[in-house]
Every structure is written in C-alpha cells, then in structure tokens.
Amino acid sequence: MDWKPNRHAVISIHRQITDRIKALIERGDWSTDMRIPPQRKLAEEFGVNRSTIQTALDELKADGYLEGRVGSGIYVTGNAWNLLMDQARPNWQRHIETGVHKPNYHTIQLINDYEQKDDIIRLGTGELSPDLLPARELEESLRSITLDARAIGYSSPQGSIKLREALSARLEKRGITVSSDNILIVSGALQALQLIAVGLLEEGATVFQEGPSYLNSVHPFQSAGMRMQAVNRAETLSSTIRSLKGQSLFYCVPTLNNPTGYSWTVEEKKSFYTLCRDARIPIIEDDVYQELQFGEGSPPLKAMDEAGHVLYLGSVSKTLSPGLRIGWIVAPTPVIKRLADIKMQTDYGSSAFSQEIVAHWMMSGRYDRHVERLRTRLQERAERMEKILLRQYQDIATWNRPSGGFYIWIRFHAPIVNKALFLKALQRKVLLNPGYIYDPGDAHHIRLSFAYASLDEMEIGLHQLRKIIEERRDAP
Amino acid sequence: MDWKPNRHAVISIHRQITDRIKALIERGDWSTDMRIPPQRKLAEEFGVNRSTIQTALDELKADGYLEGRVGSGIYVTGNAWNLLMDQARPNWQRHIETGVHKPNYHTIQLINDYEQKDDIIRLGTGELSPDLLPARELEESLRSITLDARAIGYSSPQGSIKLREALSARLEKRGITVSSDNILIVSGALQALQLIAVGLLEEGATVFQEGPSYLNSVHPFQSAGMRMQAVNRAETLSSTIRSLKGQSLFYCVPTLNNPTGYSWTVEEKKSFYTLCRDARIPIIEDDVYQELQFGEGSPPLKAMDEAGHVLYLGSVSKTLSPGLRIGWIVAPTPVIKRLADIKMQTDYGSSAFSQEIVAHWMMSGRYDRHVERLRTRLQERAERMEKILLRQYQDIATWNRPSGGFYIWIRFHAPIVNKALFLKALQRKVLLNPGYIYDPGDAHHIRLSFAYASLDEMEIGLHQLRKIIEERRDAP
Ligand SMILES: Cc1ncc(COP(=O)(O)O)c(C=O)c1O
Ligand SMILES: Cc1ncc(COP(=O)(O)O)c(C=O)c1O
Residue limits of the HTH gntR-type domain (chains A, B) (predicted)? Predict the structure, then answer.
C-alpha cells in the first residue's frame, strides 16, 4: 500500500480514508472475514493520527463493512445486505434498460445532485422558488386548523372526505362534474402514476406519450413492465392505433406541458379525445399546471369527458407546496376503488395533516387568493425572462411566449445543446435542463424555468450561458 | 324484466337501481353500444318516478357505464377502463394466489368494512382509541411550528435532517448508535416493507417470518414475487437454512409481536441474531411497539448489531398518530441510499409537514411526555381487560399477561374460533380478529386489543362474546 490521503483535496482526510477502505473491500483486496491491520499500523501507513483512523473504522462498522470481534480485532464482514444488493438487480430496474426511452442518467444525476447545493443558479428547476412558496401563510394557517381524533387515525381508503368534497367543488368550476366518490387522494401526482402502473395495466401494455414529456412519468410505467411509445398525437396516433395489439393507454399533459410549456388548443383537445375514445384507448390527463394559466386558459380534456374515459390527475405541488405531497386522481368509481385498495396496501393513505391543511386552504378561500397572486408573480417572472431572451438570444434561438406555468422551451438554431455545454455551464455554476435528457436525439432545446431562479440570478445565469455559447463557437 | 326495487330494504331505491343496471351490464345482458330503454319506460318497469331514474343514470354515466350521445339517447359504453380492469390481473396480485399464506380474504374484508362503522364494538382493532390519540395537544403544537421555505419544497431523498437527527439521538437511548446518514424517513413502517421488497430482493427470494405475524407484512413481499415461509425461529430455522437456495431474509417483530403481544427474551434475541448473522441471513426488525413496553423492557436486536446485519423499522403510528404516516428505516448507508432512491421514484418523499410535526414533538420533549402517559393508560386498559377475562373466561381459555403494546392473544381450550363465531359476533355488533386470519389452520385464538374499545365497550363486548360461545355450545 503506497496510498496516502491528499491533504489539499476538497474531500476531508477522514472521508478519503473511508472511501479508500471501501474500495479495498469492494475490489476484494480485503476479503470477507479477513482481519484488518491494527489501527497503529494503518495510521502509520496513511500518515495520519490514530484518532482519524478510529473515526473512519467506526463509520465503516456502522455501515456494515467491518465488524469488531471481541478480543480479536476488526474483521471484514461479508455483510449480508451488501451481498444481497450485489446479487439483486432490483426489480424496479428490471425493465428500464429495455425501454425505448433512454434518458441520459448521468446528466440527470448531476442535476439532482447540484439542485441540493446552494451557490448554483438553477435555470431549469421545475419548482416554485422559495420566495413564491407561501411559507409564512402556511405557518399562520396551522394556527387555524382544528383536529379531531378521527382525523388523525388511520385514514379511510379514498382519503379525507372534507378534502374530496372541497376538490369536487373546485373541479366543478373547471367544468368537471364529479362526486367525492370519484376522487382518490394520493401523495402527489407521481404516486398516482405509480398506482396506475401497478394496478391497472398488465406487463407488456403500451403507454403512449407525446415526446418530449414529463421525465418522471416514464419510470413508474417502465418499472412495472410497460412499453413506452412516444407519438405525435394527432398525426401518427391514428395509424399507430391500427397496428396495436394488447392493452394501451395514453399519458398526456395537454395543458402547459413539461418541458415545453405548450398547451393544446380546444380543437386539438377535442379531436384527440374523440380519437382515443373511439379507439378505446383510455387517457391519463396529468393536469398539475391547470391553475397556472395566465389568461382565460383552456379547459381540461376531462371537462369534455362524458364517458368516464379520462383519468384525471391534479396536485398542489406546483401551486401551494410540494412538501405537502398531496395530489388527486379523478376517475370512474370502480377505477378509484381499485386504486384506493392498492394505495392502502402501499402506505395506508396520505398524511392526514397534509390533507387537513389543503382542505383548510381550499375551503377558507386562502388557496384561491394565493393562486391568484402566484399567477401574477409567475407572469411577471415570465415577462422578465422573455425580456432577457429578446435582448440576448434573439439571434441564436426561438421560443414561444409562455401562456402560463413554469417553462420556456428555447430552441437554438444550431445543434449546440450537448453534454459539453451542460458541463461548461455547471463549471460556471449555472444548472441547465438540456433537451437531450427528454429526448436523446435533441441537441437544440433547453428547458428554461422562470419559476425558480431569482430575477438577478436569471439575468446573471442567462448572461453566462450566452457567453459560454459564444466562447464555444469561437473555439477551434 | 320483472325486477323491482325493494321499498323496505336498507339500501336506498336509487342505489338498488344503479346496482341493478350495473349487474345487467356486467353480465352482458345490456351489451356494449346497446341503446338503453328510454327513461319513461324504465321508470314504469321499475315502478319509480322519472327523477329517480334520472339520478341513477347520471351516476352511471359519471362512472363510465353509460354515455349520452347527442340527440340519440343513452348507450352502454364499452368503457375502456372497465375493459382494462377486466383483462388485467393487476400485477400486484400476480403472486398472491401462489403464496403459502392464504389469509381468509372475506373475513379480512369484513373487518375492514366494519371498522368504518360507528356502532360496532371493536375488540381487536390494532390502533389507539380516539381518546388515547393526543388530538388536542397536536392541534396546540401546530401553533409552535415554524416553517421555512426550504422545508416545504421537494424534500431531500432521505427526509428532513432535523427529524433524522432527533431520531438518531432517540435511538441512542435504546442502544442503537447510528448517524443521520443511516436513517431514511418513510410514510409508515408499511411503506418501509414495500420499499425493501421492491428494492433489495429478487423475485423468488425467500422471506422467513414467525407464524403468526403482522398481517400486512405479507402483501408487500408476495406482490413483489417473494416466497413467504413461516418458521419457528430457533427450533426449525437452523435446519431450514441448510436446505436453502438463493436469497433470503428474516422479517420479525421480536418485541411485542402483532398479533400475539409476545416479546422474545434477551437470550432468544441474542441466539437468533447470531444464528442469522452466521448464516448470512439479513434481518428486518419491525419494532413499532418498542416504546410501549410496560416495564424496563428488552432492547431491540439492532442494539446488539455490530455488523450492520439488522435493518430496523420504527414508526409513530402506534404512539402518536397513524395519520402522520411517519416511520423510519435504520440501515447501513449503502442500503439507505438505494431505498431512498426508490422512495424518490415512488412518491418524492414523505409529507414535510408531518416530518416537521414529529421533529418538533421529539425535540421539544412533548413526545417523551406523551409516550410516558400513554404507556400508563395502556397498562390500565390491559389490567382492566385482564380483570374481565379472569372473571369470565378463565374456565374456557388461557392467555399471557401482556407486557406492553396493544394485544392479548387469547387461546380457547376448544377449537371454537371459526367463521361462524366471527359472523355471530358481528351480528351482535362485536368485531373480532380471529386467529384464522393469521393462520388458516388456527381455530383456537382471538387477537384481543385493549387499545381501541372504550372500557365500557370492552365489558359489553367480552360479555356478549362469552354469551355467544355459550349459546353455540348449547345448540345442537
Ligand atoms: C407534468 C407533471 N406531473 C407531475 C409532477 C409531479 O407532481 P407531484 O409533486 O404532485 O408528484 C410534475 C412535477 O414536476 C409535473 O411536471
Ligand atoms: C408490527 C407492525 N408493523 C407495522 C405496522 C404498520 O405501521 P405504519 O402505520 O407505520 O405503517 C403495524 C400496524 O398495525 C404493525 O403492527
């Protein structure tokens, strides 16, 4: 062993040592049941003092890499969990690699990691910025909430009746007439997709979606063994249908799509609905951005659904707080019953406290007032971003003026959006959502979000990006 | 059609009509795309007025059984969801029927249904009664909670660091030394089992458990394709292990087991731990009742675990409120990382509000004070129940004196605990958890819970049960 920790590295000495020892074990250099060298010896070899070694070894014990045996030193464990995990290709990944959609996992991983850091300008993040989240008002609203003992026990399968009734009244305003029996409360729209994949579809069923579409919608279906197929709604759907065998359904975000921000027109919605209904292809309408349309807006597909053909999803994540983890599914009662059953078997229902809070906000009018304000502020942010784009990007890119939501799907004339660009921007502390994570073949688009970065950050971040693009063009 | 609704039935007329029409459709008497008889005609046939028919048809439309076509009446839909559901043996049920453990689904269904009703005496319910739940204090505590915007956004994968640190300090007191990195916050212990089944095990792996054991632990594993095997810990485990092929793990509730209420002794825990460790069979220790031991209590297996061999589960469902949906997994960091990953893909983390509340209760000392009081009150209830048993059941049954938790696992000398007894009790408005739902061959046990029914209800319920047993003995 001639390895020594690097005293000038960003990673702490102690962390370098644990990493080193893990590597020795994982590569098999230190094998199961081997007695490791005494601490004194390790301290000498690594050129550190014994207390550092001690801390590192304690941590490795807690993590199951090493174990102490009374009176005889420290041994490498053949830790059963590590063995399990080595063997098990976990079944939630079983189908992923065979899917048509192969997102660039490394970029997505980097995005997830860097979203945890503080000094990064996040130009693509699909969340409300901290200053758009009503933390103060939420805190205050907690003071007005009354709990009775029934409400804090195990929940009824479909979720709080108070919340479902409040939702039924809200949905009515959007043209959707359903009773509380047609509603299931879930822990966010993402869980809804999970429940549908597991409870309503057979392995091998086909799930259509528009390309590009919401990234996290792919995983629940693929991991339950569904085949994802990207289609171009009107144009190709009808021909695709004809060649179709077996079960299928269509997942779509017709209003303010993620990542494009586009909404279908009322006519497009109508003809799509008719096409699917006639072909007996059920529709999942993911409508989490519905209330964030800047103008009048267009109604959901579900509002034109007389035949119980559309399964409708909503959530408060984009309007009130993602931390609440509250969403809903609207569907015919037999579907709701089955999904409620699976939900109970999965987690026994969503947080009763989150449900109380959302019900309180909806019933007291707080929610409406907040969403109203939020829309105005998002619109201001959208305008600000557009202004910057008009000033700095008009010569190299095009985009649609946003009609709501969070996103501008900017298209560069040249195919410059690749991993090198992404990494270069990251070096300058600007985090992007490049188009190729939605469609591996796309080198033209970036998803910009005007919901997360502060106005100053937008200015700085977009300026940096423009500079980077220039530099790369000038480089040989 | 000569069917007419029954005006004297408990079910409403309008409900009888919707049920009737659903049945006609489901049996195929009314087939897909058939135009149904005009409302006037239906009203005549069923002998009700048109508005009743109208309401029923509207509901059937909303549920996707019927659809209106403009200008031409109402038709039977070949509702795509119904078709899907008919075809799809949902994959969460795929493996259930092949499992060794075949609970009596009908009885379990009845228990779930009757637990929703108000005028039933629930002698077996595994929940805190409304008057043991600290609704008032929870409500009050909401006033002291402060939220910052970070805390109400999308959560970090492992859950609130504040809560994880509070838990790490609590666990230390129980002899479990782990850092916040070894903890994953989940939506209740049930979700923990779900994540483990999906993320750590291959299809076909063997999950051992003691018989009888927690009912809902079976489903997550079976639906992910694991084989469940009931073993008698010490006696048969070692011989079973020898014949074992492929992956396996042991799921157990060593402290205050559900349904028996038994705890293993410290010696039993030690020898079990050693056996499993040496055989490299990882252990899941479900310890949701740990803090409800009446006396000193015995420490968790996890406290003797130097090798990261035990995956440890806890929850506030049995102490504070099941509606919070907060539990935790303690494990080596590589395991935590993988499970956190799956958790994020499943529902993006647990309610941030629930996490704040639990962290607040633990850090402020509220939690300790409450659990202390709760233990006393559960002990009083246990003594009260035992007193009734001593008075009325000593001649026909035996039981162990409870050492904590919720349950008394009463054993009748004669094999009298069957479905007939269960139904008879239900008729008298007494709901039981008979032993045969835990083990189909068991005709001797009932799980009594002293946590749910009020003291008066206990008295009345147990008196009724005794009477029923007598009557049945006297009957020919
Ligand atoms: C289209 C779409 N659906 C669903 C979600 C997730 O919503 P939730 O937080 O309710 O799970 C998002 C969030 O990015 C989204 O963009
Ligand atoms: C042994 C055991 N584990 C887990 C649970 C479920 O706990 P949670 O509400 O945290 O999902 C129960 C509840 O009955 C139980 O008895």
Answer: 11-79
Write down the architecture of domain A135-368 according to CATH: 3-Layer(aba) Sandwich (3.40)
For the entire predicted model, the pTM comes to 0.86
The full set of domain ranges for chain B reads 13-88, 135-368, 372-474
DSSP code for B115 = T
- Find out whether B189 and B315 touch, Cβ atoms under 8 Å: yes
Q: Which fold has domain A13-88?
A: Arc Repressor Mutant, subunit A (1.10.10)
SS3 B284: strand
Using a 6 Å cutoff on CB, does residue A253 contact ligand 1? yes
Name every residue whose Cβ is closer than 8 Å to that of residue A359 and which is 6 or more positions away in sequence. Answer: A160, A162, A163, A166
Q: How far is CA B71 from the centre of its chain?
A: 50
- Answer for the pair B352, A321: CB distance below 8 angstroms, yes or no: yes
Specify the CATH superfamily of domain A372-474.
Aspartate Aminotransferase, domain 1 (3.90.1150.10)
Residue nearest to atom 13 of ligand 1 (CA): A126
Measured distance CA(A42)–CA(A35) in Å, rounded: 13
Give the number of C-alpha atoms closer than 13 A to the C-alpha of residue A158, restricted to the C-beta side. Answer: 22
CB contact under 8 A, B220 and A88: no
Q: How confident is the model at residue A183 (pLDDT cuts 50, 70, 90)?
A: very high
Q: If you measure from the C-alpha of residue A215 to the centroid of ligand 1, how many angstroms do you get, rounded to a whole number?
A: 9
Which of B293, B212, B286 is closest to B254 using CA atoms? B286
Q: ipTM score of the complex? A: 0.85
Regions of chain B with pLDDT less than 70: 1, 26-28, 78-80, 82-104, 233-237, 242-245, 476
Residue A350: which pLDDT band, with cuts at 50, 70 and 90? very high
From the CA of A154, how far away is ligand 2's center (Å)?
Answer: 11
Question: What distances in angstroms separate CA A227 from CA A208, A251, A277, B208, B414, one per listed residue?
Answer: 8, 12, 21, 34, 55
Measure B305 CA to nearest chain A CA, in Å: 9
Q: Rounded to 5 degrees, what are φ and ψ at B286?
A: -90, 110
Q: What is the distance in angstroms between the Cα of A132 and the nearest Cα belonging to chain B?
A: 9
Confidence class for position A235, pLDDT limits 50, 70, 90: low
Cβ contact A351–B350 (<8 Å): yes
Same fold, B13-88 and B372-474: no
Put simply, the chain A residues between 181 and 220 with a CB less than 8 A from any chain B CB are 182, 187-188, 190-191, 194, 198-203, 205, 216, 219-220
Q: Are A430 and A438 spatial neighbours (Cβ–Cβ below 8 Å)? A: no
